[in-house]
Structures are given as C-alpha cells and as structure tokens.
Amino acid sequence: MISINTILKEVLNMSDKSLPSPFWVMVRKEISEHIKSWRFFILMGLILLTTSGSIYTILSVIRDNPAQLSANNTFLYLALFTTSINNLPPFITLIGFLGPLIGIAFGFDAVSSEKNSGTLSRIFSQPVPRDYFINSKFAGAYIVIILLIFALGFLVTGTGILYIGLLPAAEEVFRLFMFLIFTAVYIAFWLNLAIMFSILFKQPSTSALSVLAIWLFFTIFYSLLVQFGTHTFLPADGFAAQQVTIALSRLSPDFLYNELVTVLLNPSIRSLGALSFEQISDTLPSLLPVGQSILLVWQDIIAIVAATLICFGISYALFMRREIRA
Amino acid sequence: MEKKYILIFNLLLFLFFSLSIQSSLASYQGIVIYTPYTSQSVSPGESLSYDVEIINQSDQIETVSIKVLGVPDSWDPKLTAGNTIIDEISVKPESFGSDFSKTVKLDLSIPLEINRGRYDLEILAETNSGLQRVLPLHVQVIEQGVFETDMEVTQANMEGYADSEFNYNITLNNRTAATQNYSLVASAPTGWGVRFRVRGNYATSVQLEPGDSETLTVNVKSPMRAEAGSYTIDIRAVSGSATAEASLETVIQGEYDLDLVTPSGRLSADVTAGQSTTIPLLLRNTGTIPLEDISLRASAPAEWSVEFDVEENRVSRLDAGEELPINAVVSSSNKAIAGDYRLNIDANASEASANANFRITVRRSVATGATGLTFIVLVAGGIFYLVKKFGRR
Fold first, then answer.
1. Which one has a higher pLDDT value, A271 or B249?
2. Which fold has domain B258-367?
3. Contact (CB<8Å) B301/A283
4. Is the ipTM of this complex over 0.85?
C-alpha cells in the first residue's frame, strides 16, 4: 500500500515545486479511501480465490497432460485465460461475472453517502469547480480498477511463465493487453451506472439494490428471456431465430463483453453469430491476426465504450443539475 | 604191302579229319569288333562318342591293341574304358564265363573350324597273334564350321517414354578356339546412357572361354526430354581377334504433361472482402508433345469469381517445354468472413491436366469500423457539450 501510494504520489504530483492541482488532490483522496476500504479487500479476496482455482487447474493440466488442451490451440497463454477444465469456469467468465461487482461496489454510494454525511457541502465550500467532484469520483475508482485488473492479468501471466517456462509470444501479449483494457472499460461501465444510481437515489442501499438488480438481470435472466422469446415466436433451429437471438442478446452488456473477450482471446474464431452456407463454403481453418479479431468485435467495442461514456454523461448531467446544498 | 596202304589211308583220313576240325575251329577263332551307330551326324563344336564292343570268340584270352585311323589330331580322339584312357584291352574267351566282350569308348570332339562334309575313319584292332580287324566309321558334319564370335539379341526393339530405362538382353557366344576378353562398347546419340550388366553387375568387359556364352543386359537410359521418335544404339564386343556387333532400337513415345504453378511458387494470396486480387500463374507444358485446347477453370467459394486473362479461359496451343504466364483475377464475395478460403484452379487439356490449390486469406476492410467510430465521436461530443454547459460555474 505504501509503495502504491508513493508511486501515485510520483505520478499524480506533477512536480514538487508547484502545489498539486485540487482535482488530483481529490483523486488521491478517493484512491486512498478505496484501497483502505473493506469492500476492496473482500472483493479482491473473492476474485483472487476464484480465479486462482481456475488458473491452478489449467496450469497443472498444462504441466502434466498438455494434450488435454485443444490440439490446435497454439497460444498457450491465451488458453490460460479461456480454457475451462473440470467444470471450473475459465478466467474470463469469472472476471466477466465478478468484475461488474467491483464497479458496483466502488460506485453505488459515491455521491449519496457524501451527501448524507454532509461532506459534499464541505467540499464545495472550497474553491473548486463543481464537476471536479463527480470527475474525481470516477477517476479515483477507475484508477484502482485499472490497477486491479492489470495486476491480476500480470499475476496470471507471471504464474504461467513460472509454471510453463516459456515466454508469451508478442501476439499473445498484445491480445492480453487488449483483453485487460476492455475488461477495465467494461467494469467502468458498471462503475458509471452505479454512480448514476448513487446520484438518483438518496439511500445507498436503494441504489445498490437497483444496480445489482440490473446486473443480475443482464447476467442471468436476460439470456433466458431472449431464448424463451425467440423460441416462442420463431422456429427453434432456423437461421432467422439464430439471428434474432444474437441481435437481442447484443443489447446485454454482459453478452457484448463475453463476445468481445472470447474473440480477442481466441484467434481461431472467425465470425460472430450465424453464417450462411455461401460464407462457409470452401473455408479453411485458420487463425486471425489481432487486427482482424479486433475488427470482428469492433461493434462490441464501440457499444461498450459508448455505453460507458453515455452512463458517465448522464451521471455528469444529473449531478450538475442537482441541487446539492440542501 | 596192303597193310601199308591202309596205314597211309588211315593217316590221310586222320589228317583230313584233323584239318577239317582245324578249319571248323578257325571260323570261331579270334575277335570281332562292333558298334551300333557307324555313321553319325554332328555340328561343328559338338562332341561325338562311340561305344565299341570287342568280342572274344577264341578259346583263349585275347589282348587287343586298338588304334583310331584317319582322324585329324584336332578332333582329339580319346579311347577310354572304365574311366581310364587305354590303347590295349584284354578280353576273356567265352569258355571262361559270360564276360567275353568288352566295351571301349571312343570320344571325338569336332572342332569349330571345320568344313561341311563326310569324314571317314577306322578303328583298327590287332591281337597279339597278328589278327587284325577293321571297323569303318563315318562322321557327317552337317554344317559349315565357323571361327568367330557372335552376338544375339532376343528383342532388339523397345518402346517407352522419355526419361525411362530400357533393358535389352543379348547373348555373346565365343565360337573361337581361344579364350577371349571382350571389351563392350556402345555408340548412342548424345544424352543417352548405355551400360552393360553381366550377372547383375555393371561391367565394361567380359571374358569367355572357347565355346562359352554369356547373357549380357544392356541398360539404356533415355534423356529427360528425348523427343518422340526412334533411336538406334550400336553395341559391339571387341577382343583382340574377334568382333561382334548388334544394333538396338529404342522408340520414344511422346508424353503429355501439364503443370500449373506460380512464378514465385507461392500458393497463397491476401484479399480484402468484396475486393479482388491478381494471382500470377504459369502454365507449363512439361511433356514432349504440344498440347492443344487447354481450358482453365477455377472452383472458388460461393459468390466469388475468378477470371483469367486469356480468351474464353482457353489456351489454344502450348508447345512442348513452353511456358505461358496467365493472370487470374480473384474477386471475393463482400460477405466473405475474415480468415482463409480455399481456391482451386484447374488446367485441362484432353490428354493432360494440372491443378493448383490456393489459400486465400480474407481480411475485412478497416473502413467498416469507421461508422462505429463516428458514433463514439458523437457520444464524446455530447459529453464535451455537457462539460461546456455545466462545468466550471
């Protein structure tokens, strides 16, 4: 913690000569509060426990019986993140499930708790612009999330290097970086959503329950609803049913994130959704270069980034127009 | 006086009787020589043998010396009995038991160098008591003898494709009187390889005893690009005193072969979905005969098209060894997904065909992502507007 603080000091204090900008002072305060909070430790422990189980199983398989992994998977480090063995969910699924919880935990009481405890008006008695508050709330939490995600990714890769004894290829490193970046963006979406609810509702518990309800709806019930809906109105095995299912599923951020990281970490995936016979005739199994994989999920990237920005924009607008001195 | 006459008469009678007995004994006296085949026919170089039976008809053991007369030394006459060479033999009389005749074997080897015709010879048997018996024999040499080497080829004409091997079997006969060391020589058109094989091993010379023969294999290898036609290869076996020659004929049949490659050898190409790429091809006649009316055809994924820069996708004529560069323009479907597709191009003439398999890597155009980016820019613009409107106040 001390080292992180010193690093942050180095980074955030632009220079020792001039006084730090009030915005960065506020961000630093946010970071230190998050890092010292119990929810950070609990979530961190939860993620470490679940992912280490998954990673350990895969590593032992790689060491003892690599043939058990898919034979045409030439990217061992990507397999580390995507392979599911003994019904243990792979790393990407665990992160896709627990990641939003970090965002929600960091954001659900961001504004309302300050307002309820009266610290909000004390902040604004200082000569700082009003949007510094909402910006620093987001920036502080987001920096912690980025650090957490990258630390986790590097931890897994590092353990992999120790176990396997091979260095990851440049292509793998690049794909892993993209994966970590978009994971952070996806968590930022839930963070912004949670901040939005913390502005909307005075009670932190109300906002927490609402965001959790949305999270549960999209991760568990939405796909069931889509399946049920399309199967009721369209023939089950038809091409149209598949296309409608995928189109409706893409409304769910959870589905978008899963599709995005699955394609990013699996170079052998060439397309999303249903394909016509014309498209698959005479195809040869091949691995896509990174650029083509990114192009394939470009729509998902746009959707997630846009949703994150829109949530932030709404929170910003809501906060700026709200009467806070009451 | 009368008594004296009777005595003389008796004496005369006795004499007569004894004489008559003597004369009757004389017809059984001495020896007889006999052989069943007194006249035989042979070819030069062959050998001949007679079984001559000597029969003792006297009442005592007769020792008979035997000579062969009228035989040139080159015929190498040899008298044998019971594996030994003899010139004298004793025969028991009939009264001694059953074994009153002996067989003597006369071996003659007829030389190679001999004229055709009838040759007379005699066997002379003479007893110790000076009794002679003569057995005349005739040898008929039925063909003119030669003194040379000859070479026989069982099948002097063979047919095959260019760049193949032909194996001719020849028999070399040494019909001379001396051991010959033949060196084996071949004269073939340039580019042809001729080797001789004797008992499985390659050789350049062969040694033959007089009268021996040896089967040689002549291994003829035609050049890679021998044109269709017939070729003559002369082979000779030459020794110091004899020469044999034979002429072999090889008929090369024309071969049809076609090859479809790319100049660089690369069998892959990149294409952006919905656009086209050009694949340079080389059509090569690798046969030895011109090919006519070669049609080009591509089997591409659905909704793709392939066009060749030759009229009606046809090449009217391609000479042997000729290369023709052709460009294939491959247009991909705009619905093609990123990754690899298979493309097969065939060249077909009625006699030969060739094909090339390509792996075409499809890339999606980056331009498709631009619309998405404008959306992000719009959202970012909205946030910038909010900051402008509400911030810093």
1. B249
2. Immunoglobulin-like (2.60.40)
3. yes
4. no
